[in-house]
């Protein structure tokens, strides 16, 4: 997930394969300064890693680390998000858009010394096409692939079944074939037992302890240049207040996800800078539509009343989104409506007055009456069987917003005679994946290209069987949504594609399975006596944590380096962009990307 993944992330499979795999044994550990003189960039995180396998990971923390460990075919300019070179230096499409040819760079090597080639990329995609376990996290990207080949070490050719508008936004980490082909079971291997892990990104993962830390060192051979900090550490904090206290003491360099009160208090603190910018996330209520697998089997114990669209609409109308923004986020957010945040204005959608579900308790009561859930003498809504209408909602124990909104929902829905139990758990993934919930607080980091966050609501994203893990966010499977998804994926006309994406958001809104309450700002802070400068994305008024790329941690300059290098990362990227050759008919079409990964979910 991250979503947070949704603030959680879905992951049922976290077992380790028994196969002996030396993914890390030969990795060259980059030089660093002596331990007592190292410049260490420590980032406080609250989300647990779901998997360190790029084939399984969906949470924001995991996919963000993969962006540091592995190169992707393309990256995204921190200024406006358009495609720039990654492992591929150039690309072209055939006139019919069914064949895409990528030129693979000559100056990328794996950290064990072997060259990164087109064969690594072809093997990565083919494995996802032929192994359902390997397609868990990112299978939507290859579902339309017909054939992938590497005719030579510097040429990758992808043949499609039909045109695909995301060919410059394939957010798939390319892995070294010579190591990963030894994996026995991709649905179980988590890549977290041997370190350092072989990669070709700006950082090399050197150590990991569950719910404690991830440690990375610069890849001094990275083609774009080595990061400036000697070590990057993601340190786990279950409690956000503890993370903020650590920031004040200088024990960590950076904290994200600040509450309004924390941001206000840190704003006047010495040597601390607060970044408050429009975010790329949405914050929503997800309704269990009846968990099911692609083979047709149903599972879980979601409340059957929520299968009635009138009940879902009633809960929607009984939720005061404006109050969520004003009272919970205290203005550090925008009221939610469509699925894509307003930061991505090309795809942003909002319902017109005739479609909009406003906060209207009277209308909510009418809908519940109509659905057959009337109040008894005690003021409690009951069904025809006499059972009270009580729901459960999954809440992330580490997220203060979930707890605060949960209390408001209990108040608003309680006035209607509807009961609500707020289940705040350290691990929401297990009940979520098992379909053992009624509602859940949900959220995803949306990318410039919306394909991925749309794909997680398609029927194809459902798990193959109840025992498997799918890429679905919330078990939604809607024929009309799937039709629109297929149309937008094949549409190269930017305006037409944007219209299709807006129709998909309208469909999600109308079905009532997703109630987007807010688009939270990115509210984060860092120590200026540890970090002299760091790049946001977008460059103007953007976020630092959870970017569509590795720009923040790659660009960060230590405070004692003697130079802030302000804006240097953007300058480097722009210089590279100027040299990109877009060949053939693809030249005018710049596709933006999806996740933060993937996110992501967070």
Automatic annotation (TrEMBL):
<protein>
    <submittedName>
        <fullName>ABC transporter substrate-binding protein</fullName>
    </submittedName>
</protein>
<dbReference type="InterPro" id="IPR030678">
    <property type="entry name" value="Peptide/Ni-bd"/>
</dbReference>
<feature type="domain" description="Solute-binding protein family 5">
    <location>
        <begin position="84"/>
        <end position="455"/>
    </location>
</feature>
<keyword id="KW-1133">Transmembrane helix</keyword>
<dbReference type="Pfam" id="PF00496">
    <property type="entry name" value="SBP_bac_5"/>
</dbReference>
<keyword id="KW-0732">Signal</keyword>
<feature type="transmembrane region" description="Helical">
    <location>
        <begin position="569"/>
        <end position="592"/>
    </location>
</feature>
<feature type="signal peptide">
    <location>
        <begin position="1"/>
        <end position="34"/>
    </location>
</feature>
<keyword id="KW-0472">Membrane</keyword>
<dbReference type="InterPro" id="IPR039424">
    <property type="entry name" value="SBP_5"/>
</dbReference>
<dbReference type="InterPro" id="IPR000914">
    <property type="entry name" value="SBP_5_dom"/>
</dbReference>
<comment type="similarity">
    <text>Belongs to the bacterial solute-binding protein 5 family.</text>
</comment>
<keyword id="KW-0812">Transmembrane</keyword>
<dbReference type="InterPro" id="IPR006311">
    <property type="entry name" value="TAT_signal"/>
</dbReference>
<keyword id="KW-0813">Transport</keyword>
């Amino acid at each position: 997930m991250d979503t947070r993944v949704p603030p959680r992330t879905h992951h049922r499979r976290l077992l380790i394969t028994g196969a002996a795999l030396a993914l890390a044994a030969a990795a060259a550990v980059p030089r660093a300064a002596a331990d007592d003189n190292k410049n260490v960039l420590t980032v406080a995180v609250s989300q647990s890693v779901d998997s360190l396998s790029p084939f399984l990971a969906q949470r924001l923390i995991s996919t963000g680390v993969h962006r540091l460990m592995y190169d992707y075919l393309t990256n995204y300019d921190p200024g406006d998000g358009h495609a720039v070179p990654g492992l591929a230096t150039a690309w072209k499409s055939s006139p019919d858009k069914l064949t895409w040819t990528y030129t693979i760079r000559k100056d990328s090597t794996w950290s064990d010394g072997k060259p990164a080639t087109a064969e690594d990329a072809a093997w990565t995609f083919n494995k996802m096409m032929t192994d359902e376990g390997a397609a868990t996290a990112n299978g939507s990207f290859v579902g339309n692939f017909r054939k992938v080949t590497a005719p030579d070490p510097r040429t990758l050719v992808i043949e499609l079944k039909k045109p695909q508008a995301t060919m410059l936004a394939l957010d798939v980490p390319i892995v070294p074939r010579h190591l990963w082909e030894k994996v026995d079971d991709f649905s179980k291997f988590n890549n977290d037992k041997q370190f350092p892990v072989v990669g070709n990104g700006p950082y090399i993962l050197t150590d990991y302890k569950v719910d404690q830390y991830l440690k990375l060192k610069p890849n001094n051979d990275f083609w774009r240049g080595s990061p400036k900090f000697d070590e990057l550490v993601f340190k786990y904090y279950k409690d956000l207040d503890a993370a903020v206290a650590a920031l004040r003491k200088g024990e960590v360099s950076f904290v994200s996800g600040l509450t309004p009160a924390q941001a206000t208090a840190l704003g006047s603190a010495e040597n601390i800078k607060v970044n408050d910018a429009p975010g790329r996330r949405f914050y929503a209520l997800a309704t269990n539509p009846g968990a099911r697998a692609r083979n047709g089997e149903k599972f879980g114990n979601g409340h059957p009343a929520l299968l009635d669209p009138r009940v879902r609409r009633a809960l929607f109308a009984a939720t005061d989104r404006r109050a969520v923004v004003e009272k919970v986020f205290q203005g550090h957010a925008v009221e939610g409506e469509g699925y894509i945040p307003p930061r991505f204005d090309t795809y942003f959608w909002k319902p017109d007055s005739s479609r909009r579900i406003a906060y209207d308790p009277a209308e909510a009561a009418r809908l519940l009456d109509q659905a057959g859930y009337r109040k008894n003498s005690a003021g409690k809504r009951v069904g025809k069987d006499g059972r009270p209408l009580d729901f459960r909602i999954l809440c992330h124990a580490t997220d203060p917003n979930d707890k605060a909104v949960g209390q408001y929902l209990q108040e608003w829905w309680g006035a209607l005679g509807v009961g609500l139990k707020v289940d705040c758990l350290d691990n929401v993934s297990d009940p979520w994946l098992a379909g053992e919930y009624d509602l859940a607080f949900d959220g995803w980091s949306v990318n410039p290209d919306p394909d991925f966050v749309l794909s997680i609501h398609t029927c194809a994203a459902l798990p193959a069987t109840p025992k498997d893990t799918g890429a679905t966010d919330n078990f939604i499977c809607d024929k009309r949504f799937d039709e629109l998804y297929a149309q937008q994926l094949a549409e190269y006309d930017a305006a037409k594609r944007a219209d299709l994406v807006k129709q998909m958001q309208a469909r999600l809104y109308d079905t009532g399975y997703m109630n987007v309450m807010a688009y939270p700002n990115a509210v984060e802070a860092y120590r200026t006596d540890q970090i002299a400068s760091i790049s946001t994305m977008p460059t103007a008024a953007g976020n630092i944590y959870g970017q569509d790329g590795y720009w923040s941690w790659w660009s960060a300059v230590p405070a004692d380096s003697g130079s802030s290098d302000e804006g240097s990362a953007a300058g480097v990227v722009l210089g590279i962009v100027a040299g990109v050759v877009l060949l053939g008919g693809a030249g005018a079409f710049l596709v933006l990307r999806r996740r933060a990964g993937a996110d992501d979910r967070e």
